[in-house]
Amino acid sequence: MNDQAKSVDQRFDAAAPAELSSWNRQDTTWMLGLFGTAIGAGTLFLPINAGLGGFWPLVILALLAFPMTFYAHRGLTRFVLSGREGADITEVVEQHFGIKAGALITLLYFFAIFPILLIYSVGLTNTVASFLEHQLHITPPPRALLSFVLILGLLAVVRCGEQAIVKAMSLMVYPFIVALLFLAVYLIPHWNGGILTTASQVPAPSALLHTLWLAIPVMVFSFNHSPIISAFAVDQKRRYGVHAEERSSQILSRAHALMVLMVLFFVFSCVLTLSPEQLAEAKEQNLSILSYLANHFSNPTIAFAAPLIAFVAISKSFLGHYIGASEGLKGLIVKSGKRPSAKALDRIVAAFMLVICWIVATLNPSILGMIETVGGPVIAAILFLMPMYAIRKVPAMARYRGQASNVFVTAVGLVAISALVYKLTM
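Given the sequence above, the corresponding structure tokens read:
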């Protein structure tokens, strides 16, 4: 390294502690961006899945929500930070585990995230078409045209750059938070405590463990924002250098506290409003909690607000998952031996995403179950197990060894994967 570069690094490191002393606007933007990626369409199904297990499993899941999500995402962030300057997750895997492992993880990373992007494309098109038809009483345009316009609009935000994506997501978070709060508070007068009837019925230990075993993956993936962690860690390292781990942990802890408090308030409000039988009916009808509540109350306000909330939820999750999917696709292209310029690579990836998402959204397949069963175990392995394995094997992460949180994250990861495999083979 030349003297000028050393001087620049010294000035950067000297400035970093001053930056860490106060929270800044960029930190808030990232906090909301992480929130925006995690809290999306899955949140609207969480009250149904979490509430069906009864009172005590729901309470235990609520207590586990923060440590499960925070420690896992902190581990993945630390893993990316352990690589060289500017290296994303696919490059860090290659750096630590070799070229073959890097290529395999890149492939798995892409195929874990990209299908979720496709289902968001389908969901977004369905939501807008339904809103136009049922709420605005307008005949929606042909599906091919509608899906093309919607996806092109989101990709227009993508073309503005990563920082524009994160900023757009953070802006969309505000109305989403307000909407969730409004709905949760609106339901308070309708609380009937139906689920509290199960509080006196303490399940047998075996039944409780079985319920928690199958419910943990639902909780894990309802708060999952691993697709944006790589970009988040790279940006933190660029901004804060050797202090990146400290600041990124602060941002993650605040983001997860916001997620857990907001979502659990929403979940408990919904569960206290509906009986276990009604939750089972919603699951059988394959409806989101908003759609079921709209039908249950026949309330025009909820009926009008539900699709708007779903639109915001799906749009911001689409943007967050796009970052991870495009990162994986770029890694696959580069590892194939082709070396296009950065601009050409961005255009190739954007064109591919537009065409595939448009075709799938137009065809409107039912692929949600496939996403959960095929993508789920891969995401759990990358989010929970890979960083813990790296802590044991990679010298750059040796300082994180011996922490109790490592055992907890590994255990939750194994539970989530085993439950998902069990569901797949049922």
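The CA atoms of residues 344 and 350 lie 10 Å apart. Try to locate this feature in the token string yourself.
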